[in-house]
Amino acid sequence: ERARLHPDRPALTFIDGDGPTPSLTYAELHDRVIELTQRIEGVMGSRRPTASQERAVEESQFAAAADRALLLFPPGLEFIVGFFACQYCRLIPVPTCFPKPGRAMPRLESAAADCAPALLLADAETLAGLDPARLSHAVTSPPHLATDAVQPGPIAGNAAALLDRIEPTDLGLLQYTSGSTSDPKGVMVSHANLLTNLESICDAFGLHRSRSADDHSISAVSWLPPFHDMGLIGGLLEAIYLGGHTTLMSPRSFLSKPSRWLATIASTGATISGAPNFAFELCVDRMTADEAAELDLSRWEVAFCGAEPIAVETLDRFANHFAAAGFRSNAYIPCYGLAEATLLVASSRSNHSAPRLKIDRDELTMGRATPVGDDHPRNQTRTIACCGEPCLDTRIEIVCPDGRPCLDGQIGEIWLQGGSIAQGYWQRDDINAERFGARIANDAAAGEFLRTGDLGFFHDGNLYVTGRCKDLIILRGRNHFPQDIEATVQRALGDQMTRCVAVATNAYVGEALSIVAEVSRHTDEDSLPSLVRHIRRQVIDEHEIDARQIVLTRPGAIPVTTSGKVKRAACRQLLESDEIPARYEWSRSILADQGTSD
Ligand code: 1ZZ
To answer: Which residue spans adopt a coiled-coil conformation according to this UniProt entry (predicted)?
Structure first.
């Protein structure tokens, strides 16, 4: 549709350092996709089901009708060509991280073994580097096709007719979540889910779809990996849906020099770009006030932030640091979302200064959010970023452990319903009913909900996310959110620390608090005991908990997901089996947990 409406408009440009900057107009993107579609049909033709077989399958279950195609692309433009070509062929695209030569790829392996792909799409260089000795049968056995080796040729037949075969209920994406590799979960996202969520994002952020050739106001920048829902849908598909232009960068390019992200936003005049909280923090830390002032960020309208807890401190630091660059604090939009709901669930509205709520810390540990004023003691106050209102066609219920809806201000699990909720996990009927078919107690008419496993509350119609059910640390009947304790440790260690994790580990009676922190290689061995004492004291001061164990380790030792979130459960397991490589470890007697003093 976009290629017909404005064929010559640039759709995508990829920039990486000083190298070439390949780019595709909408017409070129469309032609590349059709050429590849024809090649795939050629490769797969004999393997696809006949029309009568297909009808029989469709009548039983639509998902079984389509084969899966694994996408293995390095950052660049080939990924999106492969992605759309799969959709045109009615193959389900499965984005995965791309294999790095000589490295084990457990996430790629587990997704491939789970979805059993019928085709593998990659660029020629990646295919040439695939090492059969390191990769399993699931990755090496299906037919392979190098998208960049497909020669341009005449387009046979009517390209639009290809799209007529696609039903809204067909799967348009199998999105593997960033959970444990031993328990892969591919979220089945239908075309209808994708379109509903793209439209919801458009509505939430006050964006509009370009409808004519000379209306091109949308310009985006993304360095987010396209195998993650935020990078794929938020970073790539949304701008294409709107008819805009996206400048893509590799995640590595951003991480090695964060200023590149902001400089690209400034030079392209991008209106939309976003990232998880840590990226905004990194920009403040790595850029001087002078560097910040050289940029022009005044045209940045939607700086979305989500995917991990949003710290109001980051929000303020970023807005202050880049005020001289013309950054408007009301561009900062906290969002909440997850792959199981396609992407966006709730967001604060564009052009509202990101609201926040101050609540009483003690009440929070009792499961209640009680707003307090500015005169409330600082160490008894927690300020939470507001994730705004549910997006279009999404219903949010906060549900108590007994399955009943919570009252306003009461913390419970976030349950969701609506047109963006995915069709379940691929071949996981063991958990699908429980996760995607949850019911409110005594209200069968309310229908089925997705259980997110996240905790939050509503206040004045706005959602506030406070943590995840399974990560909660419960000590002596009080709930503690690991993020809060981790923030204290971060404050205590400052930039000597890269990451930390707070988890509940088994104690003599019940559970106790363990903390693991990665400290910089440059931190002197002799100073480690005093760092531990400092952490311990700060955690007691701010949370009234005496940790039972504090481990200082090297950077990279804490397990993280592909999207950079700390894996607390995995870290807890490593701790309990004594497998964290400690540089320095302190623990107090397990018997002390019997005592009454905290
Ligand atoms: P994933 C134009 N989480 O992270 C572009 N948000 O999915 C629009 N925890 O399945 C882009 N506070 O990997 C809009 N605010 O992880 C982007 O992450 C909207 O625990 C953000 O269950 C979408 C993020 C998608 C994402 C989901 C998990 C959640 C939750 C955590 C996400 C959070 C947050 C705290 C938030």
So the answer is: none
